[in-house]
Amino acid sequence: MSFILILALAAGAMFLMTSRTRKQQREAQNFRATLAPGQEVMTGSGMFGTIVDVDEDADVITIESTPGNQSRWLRAAIAKLVEPPVEAEETETDETSETAAAYGSANADPSTSKGDVDDLVVPDDLSGLTDDGSEKDRGRRDDGTDTK
């Protein structure tokens, strides 16, 4: 009796796994059937491009990766559509320039800068810095031994 129960559970698990795989294959097939010129796509090997031509008879898609550079691909090699980038670049640059002006960045407008960049002292290494950020002799001789 327990053998039949284990066998039924195994058959049910296999059915669930194969039905999910079949569903994914159907979705991929429907996606590839609706490809049209002008869409941005990525191939399975990672090449990005724009569909230029779709040959329905031979299942061949012509992709243009850079202007004037076209290549032919099997329809099955197209992995996914590429979403166009979101128009958030303008707001990022505005926020960046406001932040730079507020903190006195070298790229900021000189009239809004709080300090002169030439006043900064940047040591080559951290060995000469104290806790307050200033440089001073820490009691070492030129030969590197301590004076204490």
Count the beta strands: 5
Unreliable stretches, pLDDT < 50, 5 or more residues? Answer: none
Biggest sheet character = 5 strands, antiparallel
Instruction: Please state the overall shape, judged from the principal axes of the Cα atoms.
Output: flat
CATH secondary-structure class of the domain at 10-81: Mainly Beta
Ends distance? 87 Å
How would you spell out the order of helices and strands? Answer: HEEEEEH
**Global mean pLDDT:** 76
Task: Kindly estimate the percentage of residues that lie in beta strands according to DSSP.
Answer: 15-25%
Side-by-side strand order of the widest sheet? 4-3-2-1-5
The chain-level structural class is: alpha+beta
Determine the number of helices (DSSP H or I, runs of at least 4 residues). 2
Radius of gyration: 32 Å
The amount of helix comes to 25-40%
Q: In the CATH hierarchy, what is the architecture of the domain at 10-81 at level 2?
A: Roll
CATH topology tier name of the domain at 10-81:
SH3 type barrels
Region (Disordered): 84-148
Membrane topology: Single-pass membrane protein
Biased composition (Basic and acidic residues): 133-148
Family: Belongs to the YajC family.
